[in-house]
Amino acid sequence: MKVLILSSRENSKIALDIKLLCNTVGSETVIFDTANPCNGGFYSCLDKNDLVLIIWNKKLLEEYEVVFTVGYCLGSKKPFAMFKADTKGIPSCNGKAELLTTRDDLRAFITRELEKSEKKRTLKAAKSKLLEMGLEIDLRDFIESVSEGKSIAVEQFLKAGFSPDSCDKNGVSLLNIAVRKGHEQAALLLIDAGADIDVVSGDRGNTPVMDAAAEGNLSLLSRLVESGAELNTKSKSGQTALVLAIGRQAEEAALLLINYGADITIRDDLGMSANKYAELFKLQRVLSLIAKTTDDTTSKNL
Length: 302
Known about the structure:
By secondary structure, the protein is of the alpha/beta class. It folds into three domains: 117 residues, Flavodoxin domain (Rossmann fold); 63 residues, Serine Threonine Protein Phosphatase 5, Tetratricopeptide repeat (Alpha Horseshoe); 106 residues, Alpha Horseshoe (Serine Threonine Protein Phosphatase 5, Tetratricopeptide repeat). Helix content is 52%, strand content 8%. It has a five-stranded parallel β-sheet with strand order 2-1-3-4-5, sandwiched between helices. α7 packs antiparallel against α8 and α12 packs parallel to α14.
């Protein structure tokens, strides 16, 4: 972010101090001495900088550049602030200018504006990248990119401000879609972007954990449970992630869920529990772990 500092000559030391402060938070700075005659370079400088800081004193009201700058910033919505040891005598600008009185105020303001500027820069760059990839900047292409496992495009859509909790027309979240398709990198990008890991899909009533368990995707299942995902949600047919894993004979997934505390007693709409399904499919390792878990629970309750 580039910062323009407007200062009278008598406040040059303050201007230099502010410049050093700006540099410490990663901002480029230009100091304009208002005592200098107005010239074309000033207007160019004003346009190219992202933020304006005015070191205020009463004499600045007589400086054309300052009056012009305030009007320019208000009209163009360019962020600007006025700095003075106290705010007495500073014009309010209808509350549209920050009034700063301490170094802490100044640092906080610059840091905040720097974050905003970086966010805008990232968003603009991401949209440009998507266009270069031949993609429309819309939800349809975002969903399609997730469905096809185009992780680079998914990353750019997220940077461009699209929500990681977006859903398709059937109410299926992008995270569910990525998990079902086995697109691990796309799923991880969504999780890292803050996607709801307990979201329930509009079609099956599945959470991402349930879909990962059903697919036997140990890597994604591990990431979800380690992130604190709910393990005992029931689908529309009353099945939990553990029952789904056993039903698909995804033994490793079932063992992982039990070890992370999945409830082994919950029955589905057919009245079948995890234990009954494990017996049906003869999953001996699962049966052994269920028996051990049951014994351990019984012992604790004695």
